[in-house]
Design a protein that fits this description.
- About 60% of the residues lie in helices and about 5% in strands.
- The chain has about 110 residues and is mainly α.
- The chain folds into 2 domains: about 1-35, Rubrerythrin, domain 2, CATH 2.20.28; about 35-109.
- A 3-stranded antiparallel beta sheet has the order 2-1-3, with no helix packed on it.
- A hairpin with a 5-residue loop joins strand 1 (about 1-5) and strand 2.
- The radius of gyration is 21 Å and the shape is elongated.
- The structure holds zinc ion.
- The site of zinc ion has 8 residues, from loops.
- Zinc ion (ZN) binds next to loops.
């Protein structure tokens, strides 16, 4: 793996690209990552993807909870949907907080 020194884009291959696909910086701006850096990126990608998938699911569940609240069949149903909405928000925000922590530790690419 190689990292663009201008924008941080990660390029996977035996050689860096002629130009950065994201910012257009020339080949000499790329530096080869160490084995440890490469491993950290590969390992973190999987977990970060899981967090993002969970955030996406929570958005869908939030929509369902809102529909249930609006439906307003009876108080126990509304209470359940309101609780679901709250739990979705907590899980979603917790995932985003964890992703933020990963970014700050360089565990994001
Ligand atoms: Zn770049």
């Amino acid at each position: 793996m190689f990292r663009c020194g201008v924008c941080g884009y990660i390029w996977e291959g035996d050689e860096p690209p002629e130009r950065c696909p994201k910012c257009g910086a020339p080949k000499d701006q790329f530096t080869k990552l160490t084995e440890d850096e490469t491993k950290l990126i590969e390992r973190s990608r999987y977990t970060n993807d899981l967090h993002m998938k969970l955030v996406g699911l929570m958005e869908k569940a939030l929509d369902i909870a809102e529909m249930g609240i609006e439906d307003d069949l009876d108080p126990p149903c509304v209470a359940l949907f309101k609780n679901a909405r709250k739990q979705c928000e907590i899980i979603s925000m917790s995932c985003k907080t964890e992703i933020r922590a990963h970014v700050m530790k360089g565990k994001w690419q």
